């Protein structure tokens, strides 16, 4: 296999976060037992189109799991997703920097 960005950067980061070694077909190394537990999913396993930024089903599940206010009223997760989707759609009109600022502000409001 030749040296390229895919096998030198992306695969390295995946390996560091999840323990999955995509450069080898051998047994995976054990995951670290500290910090956040990352789970690697190949593009075939993710239930979204290539042009979609959010995996809305997983986002909704995470919002409910991580935010007590949303857990009490799960319909609030749909409102948050609606607002985040609006920010992503507006990126062509307001620019990437402004859209990132708005997206980050949305994250502050839901945490």
Which features characterize this protein?
6 helices, single chain, 111 residues, mainly alpha
Characterize the structure shown.
With 111 residues, the protein is mainly α. Helix 4 packs antiparallel against helix 6. The radius of gyration is 17 Å and the shape is globular. The termini are far apart.
Instruction: Please tally the β strands and state the result.
Output: 0
Percent helix range: 55-70%
Radius of gyration: 17 Å
Instruction: Give the distance, in angstroms, between the N- and C-terminal Cα atoms.
Output: 43 Å
Uncertain runs are none
Query: Topology as H/E string?
Result: HHHHHH
Helix/sheet category:
mainly alpha
Quote the beta fraction: under 5%
Mean pLDDT: 78
Count of separate DSSP helical elements: 6
* Main sheet overview: none
Morphology: globular
Structural topology:
Elements: H1 5-18, H2 56-66, H3 68-72, H4 75-89, H5 91-94, H6 96-110
Helix pairs in contact: 4-6
Can you summarize this structure?
The chain has 111 residues and is mainly alpha-helical. The chain contains 6 helices and no strands. 4% of the residues are buried.
């Amino acid at each position: 296999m030749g040296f390229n960005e895919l096998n030198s950067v992306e695969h390295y980061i995946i390996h560091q976060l999840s323990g999955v070694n995509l450069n080898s077909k051998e047994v995976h190394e054990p995951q670290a037992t500290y910090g956040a537990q990352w789970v690697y999913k190949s593009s075939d396993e993710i239930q979204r189109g290539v042009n979609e930024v959010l995996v809305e089903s997983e986002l909704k599940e995470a919002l409910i799991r991580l935010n007590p206010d949303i857990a009490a009223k799960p319909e609030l997760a749909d409102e948050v997703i609606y607002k985040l989707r609006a920010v992503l759609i507006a990126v062509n009109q307001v620019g990437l920097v402004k859209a990132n600022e708005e997206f980050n502000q949305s994250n502050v409001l839901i945490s």
